[in-house]
């Protein structure tokens, strides 16, 4: 692992070379490296927390000067209750995951003695750009090693001391393993991000871990594929047959359980015929949780009759394109399922959207027609999460239309290659005509 | 389907809207549309061939003036023996393929009454940019409709008349089906490619069908993912234990069966210890087929002793980075498997590479360590092809490291979405602590 002196290109080249070695290591060697990283961090706890304290000191000063937000300072603190332990446990959790490398996903007998196999393999070199949270380094290094990928890490400048301390330990730990040291590359020089984003010959996938702004910046400034989503504008369609109590609890969970999350609800579409039947209980429950409703004319007028004591504001068109990330909810009346689907497909961010209805038919139609990574029937949008899906880990959530979509587990860090094992076969021996052979194309798996 | 008047943005928006309808149609509706396209083209044969004749006339004139290559003129000719019939048969072949939409690839019981499903679905809007061959329109339109994707087609200007005639027929045919007319968008205005490549909000995947230059241009000028490969620099490593006769026939097939193909052999790496044992028979066979060998010092010196009658030229370093696409082969001596692997990973294009050896151990090591879409043991590199792999069709060959790699069938035009069917579950009900539920994460599929 190189430290501050590494140029972007050197780091990328070294990572690429290391990725070729890493790709050939058995699971045991990759798991042993994770154990070594765990042991190393465990032993170096005091040293790392001391480095982290220095970062914190500077950050607190910056916050006092109004140059940094309090929430960033808080995210920086590795000494916070449970954080260190969670970081270490995360490494062991990743180690225990099923090996994603070398899975045969297709096997076809092209002809006798000529077999085709599709086998999972690492993508190559990952570039992970993250902001304040220093524990992400350990998490991402573990995921990379487990999946056989090399990784280039670029952290936020606020966590530089913690970052350097942790990566020194990881580097020393890898020295004793079969995983090449260059497999985890650290870049700490400033302003290196544009250079890294330009290296599409050496870097195969960028994973931003941070704010929407970071993701948006990266997506706009690289040709390398980016795994992530810049926006999470999730909607729920409340259909007339939905049970009011169920609807209220699902919508409250979707909106209020963690309003700043990307899978939180931002727009509620209410079927016109549900305005005076199901919607009142929902509005009441949201209001009780402190949610501000921004309503269109029809829903506002209806609420003024059914829930006269509620105060709601009038929505503007821009509210239906806004990711509030707070206790504000845009409400819009739609006449039909079709209108709801069209609204979501044109206004949403293709992240996660739900329908609340007693009708299986309406639900299935909604789930087929809404063009989003997650489409739910009678469940909170906040289930969109790798841990909740049972993936054991989450690399990120993607709204891409290729490769990986929705919560991404280790699988998202894998691609495949085709192997053919033959006995000297030539393509000119196959085809039509005298003496030519025909392909068998017998599917073995 | 819009004709010449459609702007790039209009076409993309209309295609996106159509894609949302198309995604909900059952296989029967998509297959019926293919039947309608087939019938329409069948009926309009004379009209289309007349349009094609007008294109041909202009092209022949341009060729006579030295402005167009003869091979392009030849590719343009739809009236060439078998071409029309192949084009029509291709539509029916695609129709008969297994439906790629709606396959459940994962099913997990998150909790009782809360099931997660991962289901294949179309990607959305494809942009297909192709050069002269007008029959590609029918092929691509079929693949798009079959896979539930909308497509924007941009053909080369030399085939404009054929292109307009064919797409008029497709458009009229779709009118009678459930597939929205906007699902296949034709763009014929000139200079529209840069505008299209800019529409990453509406277009999900670009598929270039044409020269390496076209692919390279597109890859360098868009943020939209591109399915394809700009180069096919394939290598074979000839190991000392390979049977000389087998080696000669595989190398001759890889190099000479279709030298202009992307999966043809360009570099032969010979193990030093094989120079005087296996290599002479190989060199002899290649020479007999008219292949020019560009040899490094060691292989040249060896051949001057073993095959004194052969004329070979001396290689330059640049020959090992050249895709000759002709009967020229670069030959390099390497000391070991490791050196061969490193040469291929650093000089090749990650397309298809092979090892010829009697050693299973060497072969498996080669196939794991070479970072290419296809890695073969004792088989011709020219097996890298969707039809030969048994995919029934080939959308393209990809050297990307995400989504699709190697020959790509219909699967490469698919992504997935996650569906959750619940009964009003909320995320706050799960977790640790009193009264909280635990996820079951029971894998059902």
CATH superfamily of the largest domain in chain A: Aldehyde Dehydrogenase, Chain A, domain 1
Biggest interface pair, residues each? A-B, 73 and 73 residues
**Which strands sit side by side, in order, in the main sheet of chain A?**
10-9-11-8-7-12-13
CATH class division of the largest domain in chain A = Alpha Beta
Form type of chain A: flat
Sheet with most strands of chain A: 7 strands, parallel
Q: Mean pLDDT across all residues of chain A, rounded? A: 94
* The CATH architecture of the largest domain in chain A: 3-Layer(aba) Sandwich
Beta fraction of chain A: 15-25%
Radius of gyration of chain A: 26 Å
CATH topology term of the largest domain in chain A: Aldehyde Dehydrogenase, Chain A, domain 1
Helix and strand content put the structural class of chain A at alpha/beta
Q: Number of helix segments of chain A?
A: 14
Describe the oligomeric state of these chains in a short phrase. homodimer
Low-confidence region ranges of chain A: 1-5
Helix content of chain A: 25-40%
Q: Ends of chain A: how far apart?
A: 40 Å
Number of domains of chain A: 2
Please count the beta strands of chain A (DSSP E, at least 2 residues each).
Answer: 17
